[in-house]
Amino acid sequence: MVVLFTHDTIEIKKYPFRGFCKTILINYAQITFVKIDIDILSVCINANEIIFIPVNYKIQLDQFVSRYSIEMIERADVWELICYPFVDEHRTEEDLLANQKMLNELFFDENEVREIRRKIKMLMIIWVIFTMEYTSIIHLDVLCARRNIYFFKPFFKRFYWFTMKIALKGFGVQ
């Protein structure tokens, strides 16, 4: 993936999750918020989609965000919280209750979380086995896991938007 920052746009070439539309052009006015983590940069566009940018573009994204006074948020990745039980690490009942409490604070009730986890359980178990991911699974990992199975098919497109809806609810965007 190549990311180019111009005066008022971000151009992302070879974006892996948009099917045959591999180049994305984002005008600064389309950006709802930006989230910067240690391992990935997230740009919410049009209040309905999160675009992932590799962390090596952090300086350029920081400058772009500053130039246009784009909102920066600090909030947990809801997918990391949802995938918490799938990570191959010992979890106590207290850990799981604390995890559910954090999800409740992001407006996800127990039944909703249970249903989401049911839908992704096998996918995440396979992902953990093949990647040996023992610390966390984030939104990007969920998309990569599914893309490897249903790349460029209607199933992936549906799954992609399913994950976006959940992620944006976790960010308080509905």
Polypeptide structure, described:
The chain has 6 helices and 6 strands. The protein is 46% helix and 17% strand. The two termini are 28 Å apart. It has a 3-stranded antiparallel β-sheet, with helices on one face. A 3-stranded antiparallel β-sheet has the order 4-5-6, sandwiched between helices. α4 packs across α5 and α5 packs antiparallel against α6. The longest helix has 22 residues. A hairpin with a 3-residue loop joins β1 and β2. It is an alpha+beta fold and 174 residues long.
Describe the structure concisely for a colleague.
With about 170 residues, the chain is of the alpha+beta class. About 45% of the residues lie in helices and about 15% in strands.
State the main characteristics.
single chain; 174 residues; alpha+beta; 3-stranded antiparallel β-sheet
Beta content: 15-25%
Strand order of the largest sheet: 1-2-3
User: What form results from the Cα inertia axes?
Assistant: globular
Main sheet makeup: 3 strands, antiparallel
Q: Provide the succession of SSEs.
A: EEEEEEHHHHHH
Distance between the termini: 28 Å
Radius of gyration: 16 Å
Low-confidence stretches: none
Number of distinct helices: 6
Rounded average pLDDT? 89
Share of helix, binned:
40-55%
Task: State the secondary-structure class.
Answer: alpha+beta
The count of β-strands is 6
